[in-house]
Design a protein that fits this description.
Largest sheet: 10 strands, mixed
Order of helices and strands: HEEEHEEHEEEEEEEEEEEE
Distance between the termini: 65 Å
Radius of gyration: 23 Å
Length: 262
């Protein structure tokens, strides 16, 4: 028995382990050798996490380097298929367990509207096209490489793309985007939504990107008010993940679970 213990102790010493038993497995700091590239402000479950260091691992996956939030992310959010991320700006995001929670928090009402085929172009917006709203997607961060633009010319014809792989060959490629609401902030004009109208000043352009085809799995959202142009040089935690999308106008202020949010 003593000989066995001595041999075990010798093995531990050779391996350089602080502990060598089943109850006290040595703990190592994950990603300890990685240096932070950016710092992110994160809101989750009613709490604010400021200046969280982030980077990418050797597989290109976005990771959090701090001790507290990385533990929450790994334990509660990483494998959550309904995870929804709201993009506020380049350095600020909000995380929600469901898309409904995300939209409710931001006071977005989604009403049923018919799907329709809309204009798609790989060039920039021109004055002749008169898009009410657009989303521009880029293959690389900071608006570089392959570019697709999806636009809405009438609010009754939102742009839904079930599969970015066909025919766009853009599945799991988007790494930056610009969302533009071209409506003026004018309460005297109304937007035709089909069964009702919205004052221009109340019409929010909503973009929802989905991890999987067919509008499923994890989501991220971005909102643009009238005259607003939201630029995201990088999609935090969603680079090269988007496989389908929805672009539409919605009323801000009162939340429902109709239409696209189901």
């Amino acid at each position: 028995m003593n000989k066995t213990i001595k041999n075990l102790a010798l093995l531990c010493a050779v391996l350089g382990l602080a502990s060598c038993n089943n109850e006290d497995t040595p703990v190592t700091q994950p990603n300890a050798n990685l240096n932070p590239q950016e710092f992110l402000n994160i809101s989750y479950n009613g709490k604010e996490y400021s200046n969280i260091p982030t980077t990418y691992d050797e597989n290109g996956e976005f990771i959090f380097l701090d001790k507290d939030f990385s533990k929450i992310y790994e334990g509660e959010l990483k494998d959550l298929s309904t995870l929804s991320i709201h993009l506020n700006d380049e350095s600020s995001i909000e995380m929600f367990k469901t898309l409904d929670d995300n939209l409710e928090k931001h006071g977005v009402e989604i009403s049923s509207v018919p799907m329709g085929n809309d204009v798609l172009t790989r060039t920039g917006v021109s004055s002749e096209e008169n898009f009410l709203g657009t989303v521009d997607l880029w293959d690389d961060k900071k608006f570089k490489d392959t570019h697709w633009q999806f636009g809405i010319m009438t609010a009754t014809n939102p742009k839904w793309v079930e599969n970015l792989g066909s025919p766009y060959k853009f599945n799991d490629k988007c790494s930056s985007l610009i969302l533009t609401n071209n409506l003026p902030n004018d309460s005297s004009k109304e937007l035709n939504m089909g069964s009702y109208t919205l004052k221009y000043s109340e019409a929010t352009l909503v973009f929802i990107g989905y991890d999987d085809r067919g509008y499923s799995d994890r989501t991220f959202t971005a909102l643009a008010k009238p005259t607003e142009k939201k630029e995201f040089r990088e999609l935090k935690n969603f680079n090269d993940k988007m496989s389908s999308l929805k672009l539409f106008f919605a009323r801000t202020g009162v939340y429902t679970t109709e239409g696209a949010s189901k």
